[in-house]
Amino acid sequence: EAAGRRSDARVLAGFAAELEAGPEPEARLRRAMDGDLAARMERLADRRFASYHRELEVVVDRERARFSTWYEMSARATGATWKEAEALLPAVSAMGFDVLALPPLPLSGRAASGSAEEVRLVLDKARELGLEIALELAWPVAPDPDPESWRELWQDLKSAVDLWVARGVRIFRASDPETRTFPFWEWLLTAVKREHPDVLFWAGGETRPKLSARLAKLGFTWNAADVPWQGSKAELTARCTELTAS
Fold it and tell me: Does 58 fall in a domain?
């Protein structure tokens, strides 16, 4: 490639010298209309002042997006109450985990597992131990009672995310994101990240590669592994190479 550029440069320099020598106008015109000359000029075009008509924005997530180790806490596995779960946090931290994944939590009131205040104590204790909280967003899906009230529904769902962001949660896992529309996720993630750029979203559920790519474009930082869709060694190798090299 470098040799080709040098050759193009020599040809163009020779043409410039011909023009300086002042040949007949007809000769210069024939030379200028040469297709090979036009191709060489295109390859060596002066792009110092080239511009693009659109301004593109690049979103760069914080360092946690690069790598993390997750410990997923389930009430069935860790005890019946949040107080019992809190007692396990030192052991989780000691094992080297840096993200504590919690199941969906009530916004207020008291559940069988404990009160909202007990949940807050678990969140505070986790942060003291260097564990970042990842909260699951599991929103039931049902026909809208009023199809025209979708804007209010979207705002209500965002308000739930805003509440937990205000309580210090910066990672959210969306369970089965394909059950919500793509425009909704694009709107929600954009709105939340505009106000809180450090918030990260994980698309839960095993999705096919094309859907994984679409979710990434919508703003999700992570996606659950889609390797079950790879049916052979060649497919698995190609997919892993694509994920690690892109």
Answer: no
Domain enclosing residue 13, as ranges: 2-43
Task: Give the tens place of pLDDT for each residue, 38-68.
Answer: 787 777 777 777 888 888 888 888 989 888 8
Q: Rounded distance, CA 214 to CA 219, Å?
A: 9
- Residue 132 lies inside a defined structural domain of this protein: yes
Total domains in the fold of the chain: 2
* Distance, CA of 18 to CA of 150 (rounded, Å): 70
DSSP letter at 227 equals G
Residues 151 and 102 both lie in one domain: yes
Burial class (CB in 10 A: 0-12, 13-18, 19+), 103: middle
| Euclidean distance between CA atoms 203 and 200, whole angstroms | 10
What is the Cα–Cα distance from 111 to 117, expressed in whole angstroms?
A: 11
Q: Tell me the pLDDT tens digit for each residue of 92-134.
A: 999 999 999 887 776 554 555 667 788 888 889 998 999 998 9
